[in-house]
Structures are given as structure tokens and as C-alpha cells.
Amino acid sequence: xxxxxxxxxxxxxILSLASVVVAFRLRPAKQSRIALAVAVLxxxxxxxxxxxxxxxxHHHLGAWPTSIGDRDFxxxxxxxxxxxxxxxxxxxxxxxxxxxxxYIICIVVRRWRVCLYYLGVYALxxxxxxxxxxxxxxxxxxxxxx
Length: 146
Known about the structure:
Radius of gyration: 18 Å
Structural class: mainly alpha
Distance between the termini: 19 Å
Largest sheet: none
Order of helices and strands: HHHHH
Number of helices: 5
Helix content: over 70%
């Protein structure tokens, strides 16, 4: 399973980068603001939840956590952690598993090709927001991944 997971992740990133190039070449003449907002909003929410949790955690503890888990955390912090973690994982899994299938379907179905632009915008927003999470302090990442 560990061999397949990195391969799928790398394939999804390569497809995402390729889709960004294709998307901006096939940009529709009249873009929908609502569709653009729907494409960009999920990754932005992920980024906001991630960094708001980092700020909440550091503010509550006065430093980065030194132990694994959420023992002795107040209930609001635990709730914030669970929401951020669940949203992050669901969006990551959907982006790696469902998004490529939707992209391929939109390539095959001629009427849906206009959606390629918005899927490309989503891919770009997701990659940028995920990359921005990597800028978090390493003690927070160590706690987050454990």
C-alpha cells in the first residue's frame, strides 16, 4: 500500500499541473464568477482551517505542542482540530481520487469541456494552498502528522 500511495499522489500532482496549463489555454470567453468561487473556495477553506488551528493551538499552549495527541486540550481546541483534520483529509482524498476522474470525464465528454478550466483553477488553487500549508512551523507539522 505504501508503494501505491506515493505513486498515486505523484500522478495526481502531475495531472494537476498539466490541467492548469490546459485549463488556461481553453479558458472560456465568458467566465462564471460563481464557478470560479466554487473552484477556489474549498482549498482556501482548507488553508484557513489549517492556519487558524495553528494560531489557536499556539495561543492556547503558549508554544508549539511537545507531545502527541490532544490530551489536556480544552474542548473548543479539540473540536477545531477535528474539523480542520477531517476537512483537510477529505479534501486531499477527493483531490487525489475524484478530481482526476472528473477531469478525464470532462476531456471525453465534449459538452463538459468548459469545466476543464474550472477544474484547472481548482487544481492550481489546491496546489498553491497545500504548498502554503508546508510553510507552517515544523513543530506544528510534527504534531499535525502524529
